[in-house]
Design a protein that fits this description.
binds iron/sulfur cluster, alpha+beta, two-stranded antiparallel sheet
């Protein structure tokens, strides 16, 4: 299981500042930050702490079990960023 970010993400990096294991990317100092349409959670590294959810001003982060049906494709999109 992991947390999932969807495309309402505005890349404001609040979640990055909160994540204790630094598993949300790209960060601003990574080359693909400017072109990335949103940020993504590395599903292998995420420890499911949930700390990122309340700091997201756009409600763009979901625990897998609560991911709305219309966002199911973002499970693979988050994982694909790290492949
Ligand atoms: S806090 Fe929310 S809007 Fe901000 S970068 Fe993270 S997922 Fe995107
Ligand atoms: S649930 Fe915790 S470990 Fe996973 S992305 Fe959010 S803050 Fe990071």
């Amino acid at each position: 299981m992991a947390y999932i970010i969807v495309d309402t993400c505005t890349k404001d990096e609040h979640c990055i500042e909160t994540c204790p294991v630094n598993c949300i990317h790209p960060t601003k100092d990574e080359a693909d930050f400017a072109t990335a349409p949103q940020l993504y959670v590395n599903p292998v590294e995420c420890i499911d702490c949930g700390a990122c959810v309340p700091v997201c001003p756009t409600g763009s982060i979901f625990v897998l079990e609560e991911l709305p049906e219309e966002y199911k494709s973002f499970v693979d999109k988050n994982a694909a960023h790290f492949n």
